Amino acid sequence: MPRYELALIVKAMQRPQAAAALRRTVETLMERGAVVRDLQNLGDKLLPYKITKHNQKHERGTYFLVDFYSAPGILASLLDHLHRDVDVLRPTVLKKDDPVSGSTNCCGTKQ
Amino acid sequence: MFQVIGGRSVQAARLLSPRSAVLLEAVRGRKSREDPVAKSKEGRIKVPPPVDPVEMVVLKERFSEYQLIMRALRLEFKEEVLRKKYQEETGSMAEERAKQEAEEHRALMAWNDQENQRLLKLRMLRFQKEKEEAERKRVEAEIQREQEQQELITQREREILQLQEDAKNFITLENLDQRIEEALDNPKNYNFAIDKQGRVVKQTVQQ
Question: Is B50 in a helix, a strand, or coil?
Answer without folding.
Answer: coil
